[in-house]
Amino acid sequence: MVDVKIFNVVLMGFAFMFIFTAFQTCSEIEQRVLKSAEFDAKQHNTTFTASGYDSLAIIYTVFAASNWLGPSVVSVIGPRYSMFIGAIPYCLFIASLIQPLASTLYIASALVGLGAGILWTAQGNFLTINSDPDTIARNSGIFWALLQFSLLFGNLYVFLQLQGVSIITDEYRYIIYSVLTVVCVIGTFALLILRKPKVTEEEELALNVGSKNASEEGPLQAFKRSIYLLTTKEMLFLSAVFAYTGLELTFFSGVYPTCIGNTRLIHNPDKYIGLAGIFVGIGEIIGGAFFGIFGKKTIRYGRDPVILLGFVSHLAAFFLIFMNIPNIAPIAISEDHGYIIQPSTTLAVACSFLLGLGDSSFNTQIYSILGFMYTEDSAPAFALFKFVQSLFAAIAFFYSGHVMLQWQLLVLIIMLILGTLSFFTVEWSTSKMARQGYISI
């Protein structure tokens, strides 16, 4: 018989894969769809003004704020129903683009930000409930690998179906977003199939599972716990790596594709935006799968070797991007060389893979250490992670279109070093506590 806990982890991964395959694909072509709608409006002597970039800014800003609400919602209705409620706005957002209007788009964007805070807080709590100190690394890797298939599928669709398509017609838009809405709805309702994990008396006594379930404390207490955790030494150290993941998320998902598209010495650069996204996804999936398969060895030898892999991957990627891509590329179209070499398509795609591999290294180990350290406070802990991550992603989004590439890379490298050292500090402290018989803070 299949273990309920591993069933829940795998099913949750597949549900998120469906939801974010739809959302990633939607986001990938959103700006192109809105530009097409604006062009069509001009053809009919009407006006239409809406920006995909403004939509993204609204999502991240509301997402950062809503993470403070997440633990309270989870404490009232539990993680399963919280994930379901948090996923519904994603369906509404995608559906709003079937017939785009600026007002409905921005309202739906705010709702996605609100839902995301609840969804990801509940996801972290549910992952922790279905894990123990020996399986948290494995389960984090499994979930992350399944989730990142969404990045692969979304970019593969864009790469194969939208090559050379500059104007997306109404008929094409109806079909695309209707299908994506259905895919998102399937993933949302799959969350209702998740089961309540069975816990033995021994497990409850050893891990104090009853107290780690956020649904057993009130919403005000959950909010107070979030405030308290933010002031602890361990969480302050971890906030540095949380912040870094937000900055690099904006870079690999928004800035770097723009840089490739604006580098005109790359042959047919628009085509390689989708290909670069595919290789980010491949790096994410390989990293998540590898860390999932060898999760027990991660616990035995520590999480710091995986973080070191992420550090080296990202440092190499940033150095090669600096050499390969013109400094003006985040801001405007350029026919310049990189710092030393003429832009290379192969190198640009290879850097995408390194960005994905490094991102999976950091995120899987963050999930692992939070689930390990905060078994009794998993909802507030994951809410704080997503709060800091989304806040810095929003900050990076606002400056990324105005700052030269070299300075963006410098900020990333500084935060990469600070985040890595901060994680090491907490990991070494946690390992020492585990050896002394403590498993959570």
Question: What can you tell me about this protein's structure?
Answer:
This protein starts with a helix and ends in a 6-residue tail after the last helix. It contains 16 helices and no strands. Helix 10 runs antiparallel to helix 14. It is mainly alpha-helical and 441 residues long. It has helices at residues 4-43, 52-66, 70-96, 102-129, 136-161, 170-190, 201-207, 209-212, 219-230, 233-262, 269-293, 295-301, 304-324, 345-373, 378-400, 405-435. The longest helix has 40 residues, at 4-43.
Question: What characteristics describe this protein?
Answer:
16 helices; 441 residues; mainly alpha
SSE topology:
Elements: H1 4-43, H2 52-66, H3 70-96, H4 102-129, H5 136-161, H6 170-190, H7 201-207, H8 209-212, H9 219-230, H10 233-262, H11 269-293, H12 295-301, H13 304-324, H14 345-373, H15 378-400, H16 405-435
Helix pairs in contact: 1-3, 1-5, 1-6, 2-4, 2-15, 3-4, 3-6, 3-9, 4-15, 5-11, 5-12, 5-14, 9-15, 10-11, 10-14, 10-15, 10-16, 11-14, 13-14, 13-16
Indicate the percent of residues in helices. over 70%
| Total beta-strand segments | 0
Report the radius of gyration as a whole number of Å. Answer: 21 Å
Cα(first) to Cα(last) distance is 34 Å
The global form is: globular
Poorly predicted runs? 205-212
Number of helices: 16
Percent range for β-strand residues? under 5%
The biggest beta sheet reads:
none
Structural class label: mainly alpha
Mean pLDDT: 83
In short:
The protein has 441 residues and is mostly helical. It has helices at residues 4-43, 52-66, 70-96, 102-129, 136-161, 170-190, 201-207, 209-212, 219-230, 233-262, 269-293, 295-301, 304-324, 345-373, 378-400, 405-435.
